[in-house]
Design a protein that fits this description.
The protein has 319 residues and is mostly helical. 77% of the residues lie in helices and 0% in strands.
C-alpha cells in the first residue's frame, strides 16, 4: 500500500511537469479512466487466471506487468536527474521540509484547496454503505454483482470521461464542473435516504423482484439508478478536482511544484478516508436513515465552499 500510494503521487507529479494547462483536462481524464479500467478489467482478469490456472501463474503475470511498467518508465526518461543547490545539500532534512512547506503554503489559494479537498468527499461514504444495505435486504449476490460491479463501474468511468470532455473540449472551468456535479450528487444521496426510509430493513421477496408492478422491483431498480447516477457524479467530480489541483500546483515555484501537488493529493486521500473510520460507529449509534441524511447534508454543505472557489487561470483556446 505504501508503494502504491507513492506511485500514484509520483505519476501525478510527472503529469504536472509534462502537461501544459491546456492539456490538464485531457491528461486527467486519461489517467482517471485508465486507472478505473485497469482496476476493473485487469483486476478481474487476474482473479480469473488465478481460479483457472492457479495462483502461482496469477502472481507471475502480476509481477511481469510491473516489470513492463518499470521498463517503460526507465526508457521514457521523462524527468531529468534532480540538481540540488549547494545550500540545500548543506541544510538539514527538517529545514528543507520547513522551507518547502513555507513555499507551498504561500502559493495563492492553497489554503482554500486544502479545505475543499478535506471536505468534498466526506458524503461519498454513502456509496460504500448503500450496497451493504442492499446485501442486508437479501438481494441475490449475482444480480447485485452485475449492477453494483459492472454497471456502477461503467457509470463512474463515464462520469470521468464526460467531465474531461467538458474541461478540454468545451473549455468549462473546473469550478463550473465541480458546482454542477456537486449539486446533482445531492439528488442521488437524498434519493438513497428516501429509499432506505421507505423500503425498511426487512428482506425482499425474491419472487417480487421480477414482478414489474411490485414495490420491491421498483425500489430495487431506483436504488440501482441512484447508485449509478451517484457514481457518475463522483467520477466527474474526481476528474475536475484533480484538474483543479494540477492547475494550482503549476502556479507553485518549479522547485516545489511536485511537492505542492503531493501535499494536495495526500490531503485528498485523507479527506476520503477520514470519515470511513467512524462512519460505521455513527450508523450503529444513530441509524442508517439518519446517517444518510447526514451524508446528504454534507453534500449540500460542499456547495457554499465551492461558491468561494477562486477562478484559476484558464488556457486560451487554440485557433
Amino acid at each position: 500500500n505504501l508503494a502504491s500510494a507513492t506511485q500514484d503521487i509520483t505519476v501525478d507529479s510527472v503529469a504536472i511537469r509534462i502537461l501544459d494547462k491546456s492539456e490538464l483536462g485531457v491528461g486527467n481524464t486519461i489517467q482517471v479512466v485508465a486507472y478505473k479500467l485497469g482496476a476493473v478489467c485487469v483486476g478481474g482478469s487476474l482473479l480469473w487466471i488465478g481460479e483457472a490456472m492457479g495462483h502461482s501463474y496469477m502472481w507471475s503475470l502480476f509481477s511481469s506487468l510491473y516489470v513492463i511498467s518499470v521498463s517503460l518508465v526507465l526508457s521514457l526518461g521523462l524527468i531529468p536527474p534532480k540538481q540540488r543547490e549547494d545550500k540545500e545539500e548543506n541544510s538539514s532534512f527538517l529545514s528543507i521540509i520547513r522551507n518547502n512547506l513555507g513555499q507551498i503554503l504561500r502559493v495563492k489559494n492553497t489554503s482554500w484547496m486544502i479545505t475543499f479537498l478535506l471536505f468534498y468527499k466526506l458524503c461519498e461514504r454513502g456509496e460504500a454503505v448503500f450496497p451493504i444495505y442492499l446485501v442486508d435486504k437479501k438481494i441475490p449476490l449475482q444480480r447485485l454483482a452485475f449492477w453494483n460491479g459492472i454497471v456502477r463501474s461503467t457509470a463512474s468511468i463515464s462520469g470521468s470521461a464526460f467531465s474531461g470532455s467538458l474541461l478540454s473540449k468545451y473549455r468549462w472551468s473546473p469550478k463550473s464542473v465541480l458546482v454542477l456535479f456537486s449539486s446533482l450528487r445531492v439528488f442521488a444521496l437524498t434519493l438513497q435516504t428516501f429509499i432506505i426510509s421507505a423500503w425498511g430493513k426487512e428482506a425482499v421477496n425474491l419472487e417480487a423482484l421480477d414482478q414489474v408492478a411490485s414495490s420491491d422491483f421498483v425500489l430495487f431498480y431506483v436504488s440501482v439508478l441512484s447508485l449509478c447516477f451517484g457514481n457518475f457524479c463522483a467520477g466527474a467530480l474526481t476528474t475536475a478536482a484533480f484538474t483543479a489541483m494540477m492547475n494550482l500546483s503549476q502556479e507553485a515555484p518549479a522547485s516545489v511544484r511536485s511537492t505542492h501537488y503531493s501535499l494536495l493529493a495526500t490531503v485528498e486521500v485523507l479527506g476520503k478516508l477520514a470519515f470511513a473510520t467512524v462512519a460505521g460507529m455513527f450508523i450503529d449509534s444513530i441509524g442508517l436513515v439518519a446517517m444518510f441524511a447526514v451524508f446528504s447534508c454534507l453534500a449540500v454543505a460542499t456547495l457554499p465552499i465551492l461558491y468561494f472557489m477562486p477562478e484559476m487561470s484558464q488556457p486560451k483556446k487554440s485557433e
